[in-house]
Amino acid sequence: MSLIRKIVYNKKVNKNACNFTTPSHSQGEFVCPDAEKLLGKKFFECDFSETEGFDNLRAPDGVLKELQYNISKIYTSKNSFILTNGSTSGIIAAMLAVLGQNDEVLVARNCHVSVYNGLVLTGARPVWFLPERDEKWDIFKSVTPEDIERHLKANPLIKAVIITSPTYEGIFSSIPQISEVTRKYGAVLIVDEAHGALCNFARDYTGYAPAIVSGADISVHSLHKTAGAPNPCALLHISKSSKVSAQAVQDALNLITTTSPSYPMMAAIEATVEFLFSDRGRAEIRKLYDMVEDFITKASMIEDVEIYSGFCDKSKILLRMKSLPALAVAKILNEDFKIEEEFSNDNSLLFLTGIGTSKRKFEKLLHALREIAGMEVDSDFVAEKNPITLPQMIYTPREAYFHPSVYVDAEEAVGRICSEVVLPYPPGIPVILPGEIITESSAKFIMTEKIRVAGIDRA
Ligand SMILES: Cc1ncc(COP(=O)(O)O)c(C=O)c1O
Question: Global pTM?
Protein backbone atom coordinates (compact mmCIF):
# COMPACT_ATOMS: atom_id res chain seq x y z
CA MET A 1 0.00 0.00 0.00
CA SER A 2 1.33 3.46 -0.83
CA LEU A 3 2.05 5.87 2.01
CA ILE A 4 -0.73 8.20 0.94
CA ARG A 5 -3.27 5.37 0.75
CA LYS A 6 -2.08 4.14 4.11
CA ILE A 7 -2.67 7.59 5.64
CA VAL A 8 -6.15 7.86 4.09
CA TYR A 9 -6.99 4.30 5.17
CA ASN A 10 -5.80 5.02 8.67
CA LYS A 11 -7.97 8.13 8.84
CA LYS A 12 -11.06 6.15 7.92
CA VAL A 13 -10.47 2.87 9.68
CA ASN A 14 -8.37 3.78 12.68
CA LYS A 15 -10.06 7.03 13.59
CA ASN A 16 -10.81 5.82 17.07
CA ALA A 17 -7.27 4.58 17.69
CA CYS A 18 -6.04 5.46 21.16
CA ASN A 19 -2.37 6.27 20.70
CA PHE A 20 -0.33 7.37 23.69
CA THR A 21 2.48 8.31 21.27
CA THR A 22 4.02 11.32 19.59
CA PRO A 23 3.14 13.65 17.96
CA SER A 24 1.12 15.09 20.81
CA HIS A 25 -1.53 16.73 18.63
CA SER A 26 -2.82 13.14 18.15
CA GLN A 27 -3.47 13.43 14.41
CA GLY A 28 -5.17 16.78 14.82
CA GLU A 29 -7.29 16.10 17.92
CA PHE A 30 -5.74 19.25 19.30
CA VAL A 31 -4.26 21.92 17.02
CA CYS A 32 -3.08 25.36 18.15
CA PRO A 33 -5.68 27.74 16.67
CA ASP A 34 -3.26 29.85 14.61
CA ALA A 35 -1.54 26.75 13.23
CA GLU A 36 -4.91 25.34 12.24
CA LYS A 37 -5.91 28.61 10.56
CA LEU A 38 -2.67 28.62 8.59
CA LEU A 39 -2.10 24.96 7.78
CA GLY A 40 -5.54 23.42 8.14
CA LYS A 41 -6.40 20.38 10.19
CA LYS A 42 -5.53 18.01 7.35
CA PHE A 43 -1.82 18.64 7.76
CA PHE A 44 -2.02 17.38 11.35
CA GLU A 45 -4.19 14.42 10.42
CA CYS A 46 -1.35 13.18 8.18
CA ASP A 47 1.35 13.69 10.79
CA PHE A 48 2.46 10.42 12.40
CA SER A 49 5.35 8.89 14.22
CA GLU A 50 6.52 5.35 13.69
CA THR A 51 3.29 3.89 15.04
CA GLU A 52 1.98 0.52 13.87
CA GLY A 53 2.00 0.28 10.08
CA PHE A 54 3.90 3.53 9.50
CA ASP A 55 7.38 2.04 9.22
CA ASN A 56 10.62 3.71 10.32
CA LEU A 57 12.77 5.81 8.01
CA ARG A 58 15.92 4.75 9.88
CA ALA A 59 15.42 1.12 8.82
CA PRO A 60 12.54 1.02 6.35
CA ASP A 61 10.78 -2.30 6.19
CA GLY A 62 7.20 -1.51 5.21
CA VAL A 63 5.38 1.34 3.60
CA LEU A 64 8.49 3.58 3.42
CA LYS A 65 10.63 0.78 1.99
CA GLU A 66 8.01 0.30 -0.71
CA LEU A 67 7.91 4.03 -1.39
CA GLN A 68 11.70 4.19 -1.79
CA TYR A 69 11.62 1.08 -4.00
CA ASN A 70 8.98 2.65 -6.26
CA ILE A 71 11.04 5.83 -6.51
CA SER A 72 14.14 3.83 -7.43
CA LYS A 73 12.19 2.16 -10.27
CA ILE A 74 11.09 5.55 -11.60
CA TYR A 75 14.64 6.95 -11.46
CA THR A 76 16.33 3.66 -12.54
CA SER A 77 18.58 3.81 -9.52
CA LYS A 78 20.03 0.98 -7.44
CA ASN A 79 18.58 2.66 -4.35
CA SER A 80 16.72 5.87 -3.73
CA PHE A 81 16.27 7.61 -0.39
CA ILE A 82 13.66 10.16 0.57
CA LEU A 83 15.12 13.20 2.28
CA THR A 84 13.08 15.37 4.61
CA ASN A 85 15.90 17.83 5.10
CA GLY A 86 16.67 18.90 1.57
CA SER A 87 19.50 18.13 -0.81
CA THR A 88 21.69 19.59 1.92
CA SER A 89 21.23 16.40 3.95
CA GLY A 90 21.70 14.24 0.83
CA ILE A 91 25.01 15.87 -0.01
CA ILE A 92 26.26 15.47 3.54
CA ALA A 93 25.09 11.84 3.69
CA ALA A 94 26.73 11.04 0.35
CA MET A 95 30.00 12.46 1.65
CA LEU A 96 29.74 10.62 4.99
CA ALA A 97 29.09 7.39 3.08
CA VAL A 98 32.28 7.57 1.04
CA LEU A 99 34.75 9.83 2.85
CA GLY A 100 36.61 9.60 6.14
CA GLN A 101 39.04 11.72 8.11
CA ASN A 102 41.79 13.12 5.85
CA ASP A 103 40.49 11.41 2.71
CA GLU A 104 41.07 13.65 -0.29
CA VAL A 105 38.08 14.87 -2.24
CA LEU A 106 38.11 16.93 -5.42
CA VAL A 107 35.49 19.68 -5.27
CA ALA A 108 34.49 22.28 -7.84
CA ARG A 109 34.49 25.55 -5.93
CA ASN A 110 31.07 26.58 -7.24
CA CYS A 111 29.61 24.00 -4.89
CA HIS A 112 26.76 24.70 -2.50
CA VAL A 113 27.67 25.45 1.13
CA SER A 114 26.34 22.00 2.15
CA VAL A 115 29.57 20.52 0.75
CA TYR A 116 31.43 22.59 3.33
CA ASN A 117 29.17 21.12 6.04
CA GLY A 118 30.04 17.65 4.73
CA LEU A 119 33.75 18.50 4.85
CA VAL A 120 33.48 19.50 8.51
CA LEU A 121 31.58 16.36 9.42
CA THR A 122 33.74 13.90 7.46
CA GLY A 123 37.10 15.55 8.17
CA ALA A 124 37.95 15.05 4.50
CA ARG A 125 40.63 17.19 2.88
CA PRO A 126 39.31 19.22 -0.05
CA VAL A 127 41.28 19.66 -3.25
CA TRP A 128 39.49 22.70 -4.66
CA PHE A 129 39.40 23.62 -8.29
CA LEU A 130 37.79 26.52 -10.13
CA PRO A 131 35.78 25.69 -13.21
CA GLU A 132 36.36 28.15 -16.03
CA ARG A 133 34.40 31.43 -15.93
CA ASP A 134 32.13 32.85 -18.57
CA GLU A 135 32.97 36.52 -18.08
CA LYS A 136 30.27 37.77 -20.40
CA TRP A 137 27.56 36.31 -18.17
CA ASP A 138 29.59 36.36 -14.94
CA ILE A 139 28.94 32.67 -14.24
CA PHE A 140 30.88 29.42 -13.98
CA LYS A 141 31.05 27.29 -17.12
CA SER A 142 30.72 23.50 -17.17
CA VAL A 143 33.25 21.32 -15.42
CA THR A 144 35.26 19.59 -18.13
CA PRO A 145 36.58 16.01 -18.10
CA GLU A 146 40.02 17.52 -18.73
CA ASP A 147 39.74 19.56 -15.50
CA ILE A 148 38.91 16.43 -13.56
CA GLU A 149 41.59 14.28 -15.18
CA ARG A 150 44.31 16.87 -14.54
CA HIS A 151 43.51 16.91 -10.82
CA LEU A 152 43.06 13.17 -10.46
CA LYS A 153 46.39 12.59 -12.17
CA ALA A 154 48.13 15.09 -9.89
CA ASN A 155 46.44 13.77 -6.72
CA PRO A 156 46.17 9.98 -7.04
CA LEU A 157 44.78 9.62 -3.51
CA ILE A 158 41.56 11.48 -4.34
CA LYS A 159 38.68 9.24 -3.31
CA ALA A 160 35.68 11.19 -4.53
CA VAL A 161 34.77 14.04 -6.85
CA ILE A 162 31.89 16.45 -6.18
CA ILE A 163 30.44 18.64 -8.91
CA THR A 164 27.20 20.56 -9.41
CA SER A 165 25.21 19.89 -12.58
CA PRO A 166 23.09 21.73 -13.47
CA THR A 167 24.67 24.64 -11.65
CA TYR A 168 22.67 27.25 -9.84
CA GLU A 169 22.54 29.14 -13.13
CA GLY A 170 21.50 25.99 -15.02
CA ILE A 171 24.76 24.99 -16.70
CA PHE A 172 25.16 21.26 -17.36
CA SER A 173 28.42 19.35 -17.34
CA SER A 174 28.94 16.23 -19.42
CA ILE A 175 28.48 13.49 -16.83
CA PRO A 176 29.15 10.60 -19.30
CA GLN A 177 32.61 12.00 -20.08
CA ILE A 178 33.40 13.03 -16.51
CA SER A 179 32.32 9.68 -15.08
CA GLU A 180 34.58 7.88 -17.56
CA VAL A 181 37.50 9.77 -16.01
CA THR A 182 36.43 9.21 -12.39
CA ARG A 183 35.99 5.49 -13.08
CA LYS A 184 39.45 5.32 -14.66
CA TYR A 185 40.97 6.76 -11.47
CA GLY A 186 38.73 4.83 -9.08
CA ALA A 187 37.05 7.91 -7.61
CA VAL A 188 33.40 8.07 -6.57
CA LEU A 189 31.45 10.71 -8.50
CA ILE A 190 28.86 12.65 -6.49
CA VAL A 191 26.71 15.01 -8.53
CA ASP A 192 24.72 17.75 -6.84
CA GLU A 193 21.68 17.76 -9.12
CA ALA A 194 19.59 19.73 -6.65
CA HIS A 195 18.39 22.00 -9.45
CA GLY A 196 17.81 19.11 -11.85
CA ALA A 197 14.79 17.39 -10.31
CA LEU A 198 12.97 17.56 -13.65
CA CYS A 199 15.91 16.16 -15.65
CA ASN A 200 14.69 12.58 -15.32
CA PHE A 201 11.44 13.57 -17.00
CA ALA A 202 12.69 16.18 -19.46
CA ARG A 203 15.51 14.53 -21.39
CA ASP A 204 13.92 15.41 -24.74
CA TYR A 205 13.99 19.10 -23.88
CA THR A 206 17.38 19.45 -22.31
CA GLY A 207 19.46 16.78 -24.03
CA TYR A 208 20.81 15.92 -20.59
CA ALA A 209 20.35 12.49 -19.07
CA PRO A 210 20.29 12.38 -15.27
CA ALA A 211 23.65 11.90 -13.58
CA ILE A 212 23.04 8.41 -12.20
CA VAL A 213 22.16 7.00 -15.60
CA SER A 214 25.17 8.74 -17.12
CA GLY A 215 27.81 7.17 -14.89
CA ALA A 216 27.68 9.13 -11.61
CA ASP A 217 27.61 7.13 -8.38
CA ILE A 218 25.31 9.35 -6.37
CA SER A 219 23.03 12.28 -7.14
CA VAL A 220 20.65 14.43 -5.12
CA HIS A 221 17.50 16.24 -6.26
CA SER A 222 15.63 19.03 -4.50
CA LEU A 223 12.00 18.27 -5.40
CA HIS A 224 11.00 21.64 -3.95
CA LYS A 225 13.15 23.72 -6.32
CA THR A 226 11.56 22.90 -9.68
CA ALA A 227 9.19 19.97 -9.20
CA GLY A 228 6.45 21.60 -7.13
CA ALA A 229 7.00 19.82 -3.80
CA PRO A 230 7.08 21.85 -0.56
CA ASN A 231 10.37 22.91 1.06
CA PRO A 232 12.63 20.93 1.65
CA CYS A 233 11.53 17.64 0.00
CA ALA A 234 14.42 15.93 -1.75
CA LEU A 235 15.84 12.62 -2.97
CA LEU A 236 19.19 10.85 -3.00
CA HIS A 237 19.94 8.17 -5.60
CA ILE A 238 22.72 5.58 -5.90
CA SER A 239 23.29 4.40 -9.46
CA LYS A 240 22.94 0.78 -10.50
CA SER A 241 26.60 0.64 -11.52
CA SER A 242 27.92 2.13 -8.27
CA LYS A 243 29.84 0.24 -5.61
CA VAL A 244 28.63 2.63 -2.92
CA SER A 245 26.54 0.58 -0.52
CA ALA A 246 22.98 1.48 0.37
CA GLN A 247 23.74 0.63 4.00
CA ALA A 248 26.58 3.19 4.11
CA VAL A 249 24.16 5.88 2.89
CA GLN A 250 21.45 4.73 5.31
CA ASP A 251 23.93 4.84 8.21
CA ALA A 252 24.99 8.34 7.19
CA LEU A 253 21.40 9.53 6.93
CA ASN A 254 20.66 8.06 10.35
CA LEU A 255 23.56 10.04 11.73
CA ILE A 256 22.21 13.39 10.59
CA THR A 257 18.45 13.01 10.22
CA THR A 258 15.73 13.57 12.78
CA THR A 259 14.13 10.47 14.28
CA SER A 260 10.79 12.18 13.65
CA PRO A 261 10.67 12.66 9.89
CA SER A 262 7.63 14.54 8.66
CA TYR A 263 4.96 12.22 7.26
CA PRO A 264 3.19 15.08 5.44
CA MET A 265 6.48 15.74 3.67
CA MET A 266 7.09 12.10 2.86
CA ALA A 267 3.56 11.86 1.48
CA ALA A 268 4.26 15.00 -0.57
CA ILE A 269 7.42 13.35 -1.94
CA GLU A 270 5.40 10.30 -2.97
CA ALA A 271 2.72 12.44 -4.60
CA THR A 272 5.29 14.58 -6.42
CA VAL A 273 7.30 11.69 -7.88
CA GLU A 274 4.16 9.83 -8.95
CA PHE A 275 2.82 12.99 -10.54
CA LEU A 276 6.03 13.72 -12.45
CA PHE A 277 6.00 10.14 -13.76
CA SER A 278 2.31 10.20 -14.76
CA ASP A 279 0.96 11.25 -18.15
CA ARG A 280 -0.47 14.37 -16.52
CA GLY A 281 2.84 15.19 -14.92
CA ARG A 282 4.73 14.75 -18.18
CA ALA A 283 2.20 16.97 -19.91
CA GLU A 284 2.72 19.60 -17.21
CA ILE A 285 6.51 19.42 -17.68
CA ARG A 286 6.06 19.68 -21.45
CA LYS A 287 3.84 22.72 -20.91
CA LEU A 288 6.50 24.36 -18.77
CA TYR A 289 9.29 23.84 -21.31
CA ASP A 290 7.00 25.00 -24.14
CA MET A 291 6.18 28.16 -22.18
CA VAL A 292 9.89 28.81 -21.54
CA GLU A 293 10.65 28.27 -25.22
CA ASP A 294 7.86 30.61 -26.22
CA PHE A 295 9.13 33.19 -23.72
CA ILE A 296 12.69 32.89 -25.05
CA THR A 297 11.52 33.31 -28.65
CA LYS A 298 9.54 36.42 -27.79
CA ALA A 299 12.12 37.92 -25.43
CA SER A 300 14.87 37.38 -28.02
CA MET A 301 12.89 39.57 -30.39
CA ILE A 302 13.40 42.53 -28.03
CA GLU A 303 16.50 44.05 -29.51
CA ASP A 304 18.05 44.91 -26.18
CA VAL A 305 17.62 41.45 -24.64
CA GLU A 306 20.05 38.55 -24.92
CA ILE A 307 19.27 35.10 -23.51
CA TYR A 308 21.94 32.58 -22.53
CA SER A 309 21.83 29.67 -24.94
CA GLY A 310 24.64 27.27 -23.92
CA PHE A 311 24.22 23.66 -22.71
CA CYS A 312 21.84 24.46 -19.91
CA ASP A 313 18.62 23.50 -18.21
CA LYS A 314 15.93 25.48 -19.98
CA SER A 315 13.80 25.71 -16.85
CA LYS A 316 16.17 28.51 -15.89
CA ILE A 317 16.25 31.75 -17.81
CA LEU A 318 19.51 33.66 -17.76
CA LEU A 319 19.34 36.96 -19.57
CA ARG A 320 21.01 40.31 -19.93
CA MET A 321 20.17 43.65 -21.45
CA LYS A 322 22.81 44.97 -23.76
CA SER A 323 22.24 48.63 -22.86
CA LEU A 324 21.73 48.37 -19.10
CA PRO A 325 23.69 46.90 -16.18
CA ALA A 326 21.93 43.78 -14.89
CA LEU A 327 21.66 45.24 -11.39
CA ALA A 328 19.88 48.30 -12.76
CA VAL A 329 17.43 46.05 -14.58
CA ALA A 330 16.87 44.06 -11.38
CA LYS A 331 16.13 47.25 -9.43
CA ILE A 332 13.58 48.43 -11.99
CA LEU A 333 11.96 44.98 -12.13
CA ASN A 334 11.71 44.86 -8.33
CA GLU A 335 10.53 48.39 -7.73
CA ASP A 336 8.42 49.28 -10.76
CA PHE A 337 7.08 45.89 -11.82
CA LYS A 338 7.11 43.93 -8.53
CA ILE A 339 9.01 41.15 -10.27
CA GLU A 340 11.70 39.47 -8.22
CA GLU A 341 14.43 37.62 -10.01
CA GLU A 342 16.19 34.66 -8.34
CA PHE A 343 19.59 36.28 -8.59
CA SER A 344 21.44 38.97 -10.46
CA ASN A 345 25.13 39.72 -10.84
CA ASP A 346 26.97 42.46 -12.74
CA ASN A 347 26.21 40.93 -16.11
CA SER A 348 23.07 38.81 -15.98
CA LEU A 349 19.76 38.08 -14.29
CA LEU A 350 18.53 34.62 -13.40
CA PHE A 351 14.85 33.63 -13.34
CA LEU A 352 13.87 30.20 -12.02
CA THR A 353 10.81 28.45 -13.33
CA GLY A 354 9.29 25.09 -12.49
CA ILE A 355 6.05 23.22 -12.27
CA GLY A 356 3.72 25.94 -11.08
CA THR A 357 5.18 28.81 -13.11
CA SER A 358 2.11 30.19 -14.83
CA LYS A 359 1.76 31.71 -18.29
CA ARG A 360 0.76 34.94 -16.54
CA LYS A 361 4.22 35.19 -14.94
CA PHE A 362 6.01 34.77 -18.29
CA GLU A 363 3.75 37.42 -19.83
CA LYS A 364 4.35 39.82 -16.96
CA LEU A 365 8.12 39.42 -17.28
CA LEU A 366 7.97 39.81 -21.04
CA HIS A 367 5.93 42.97 -20.71
CA ALA A 368 8.38 44.40 -18.17
CA LEU A 369 11.39 43.62 -20.36
CA ARG A 370 9.73 45.34 -23.32
CA GLU A 371 9.10 48.40 -21.17
CA ILE A 372 12.62 48.48 -19.75
CA ALA A 373 14.43 47.89 -23.06
CA GLY A 374 16.13 51.03 -24.21
CA MET A 375 15.41 52.95 -20.99
CA GLU A 376 17.99 55.47 -19.89
CA VAL A 377 18.93 55.16 -16.24
CA ASP A 378 21.74 56.36 -14.00
CA SER A 379 24.09 53.44 -14.15
CA ASP A 380 25.72 53.74 -10.76
CA PHE A 381 24.80 50.17 -9.92
CA VAL A 382 28.15 48.64 -9.15
CA ALA A 383 28.20 45.50 -7.06
CA GLU A 384 31.23 44.36 -5.13
CA LYS A 385 32.82 41.87 -7.51
CA ASN A 386 33.19 38.37 -6.18
CA PRO A 387 36.96 37.76 -6.37
CA ILE A 388 36.42 34.12 -7.53
CA THR A 389 39.81 32.89 -6.54
CA LEU A 390 40.92 29.92 -4.53
CA PRO A 391 42.13 31.25 -1.19
CA GLN A 392 45.12 29.58 0.41
CA MET A 393 43.92 26.80 2.75
CA ILE A 394 45.81 26.59 6.06
CA TYR A 395 43.43 24.30 7.96
CA THR A 396 40.92 21.80 6.57
CA PRO A 397 37.30 22.84 7.17
CA ARG A 398 37.09 20.40 10.09
CA GLU A 399 40.35 21.57 11.68
CA ALA A 400 39.20 25.16 11.31
CA TYR A 401 35.77 24.41 12.76
CA PHE A 402 37.28 23.10 16.00
CA HIS A 403 40.09 25.65 16.16
CA PRO A 404 39.75 28.46 18.73
CA SER A 405 38.61 31.69 17.17
CA VAL A 406 38.35 35.37 18.03
CA TYR A 407 36.40 38.32 16.61
CA VAL A 408 38.35 41.10 14.92
CA ASP A 409 37.23 44.24 13.07
CA ALA A 410 36.58 43.32 9.45
CA GLU A 411 39.21 45.78 8.19
CA GLU A 412 41.87 44.07 10.31
CA ALA A 413 41.03 40.64 8.96
CA VAL A 414 43.20 40.66 5.84
CA GLY A 415 45.94 38.07 6.12
CA ARG A 416 44.20 36.23 8.99
CA ILE A 417 42.77 32.72 8.81
CA CYS A 418 39.00 32.87 8.48
CA SER A 419 36.76 31.02 10.96
CA GLU A 420 33.44 31.79 9.31
CA VAL A 421 31.75 30.84 6.10
CA VAL A 422 31.56 34.00 4.01
CA LEU A 423 28.95 33.51 1.36
CA PRO A 424 26.43 35.64 -0.43
CA TYR A 425 23.03 33.86 -0.39
CA PRO A 426 21.74 33.26 -2.97
CA PRO A 427 23.58 31.53 -4.54
CA GLY A 428 25.10 29.98 -1.41
CA ILE A 429 28.52 29.50 -3.01
CA PRO A 430 31.27 30.23 -0.47
CA VAL A 431 33.73 33.06 -1.10
CA ILE A 432 35.93 32.30 1.92
CA LEU A 433 35.73 29.22 4.12
CA PRO A 434 37.02 28.59 7.62
CA GLY A 435 40.68 27.65 7.44
CA GLU A 436 41.39 29.92 4.46
CA ILE A 437 43.41 33.13 4.36
CA ILE A 438 41.35 36.29 4.00
CA THR A 439 42.73 38.28 1.09
CA GLU A 440 42.17 41.95 0.39
CA SER A 441 39.70 41.22 -2.38
CA SER A 442 37.77 38.56 -0.46
CA ALA A 443 37.59 40.84 2.62
CA LYS A 444 35.29 43.13 0.64
CA PHE A 445 32.66 40.41 0.87
CA ILE A 446 32.57 40.52 4.65
CA MET A 447 29.31 42.31 5.29
CA THR A 448 29.61 42.48 9.07
CA GLU A 449 31.69 44.87 11.19
CA LYS A 450 33.42 42.00 12.96
CA ILE A 451 34.53 38.63 11.68
CA ARG A 452 35.69 35.50 13.41
CA VAL A 453 39.27 34.49 12.64
CA ALA A 454 41.47 31.72 13.96
CA GLY A 455 42.90 32.50 17.37
CA ILE A 456 45.79 30.91 19.21
CA ASP A 457 45.50 27.18 19.70
CA ARG A 458 45.81 26.63 23.46
CA ALA A 459 46.20 22.89 23.03
C1 LIG B 1 23.38 23.83 -6.07
C2 LIG B 1 22.65 23.57 -4.80
N3 LIG B 1 22.87 22.41 -4.14
C4 LIG B 1 22.23 22.12 -2.99
C5 LIG B 1 21.34 22.99 -2.43
C6 LIG B 1 20.66 22.63 -1.15
O7 LIG B 1 19.36 22.23 -1.42
P8 LIG B 1 18.22 22.15 -0.30
O9 LIG B 1 17.68 23.52 -0.15
O10 LIG B 1 17.21 21.20 -0.89
O11 LIG B 1 18.83 21.63 0.94
C12 LIG B 1 21.08 24.22 -3.07
C13 LIG B 1 20.13 25.17 -2.47
O14 LIG B 1 20.02 26.30 -2.80
C15 LIG B 1 21.75 24.52 -4.28
O16 LIG B 1 21.55 25.68 -4.94
Answer: 0.95
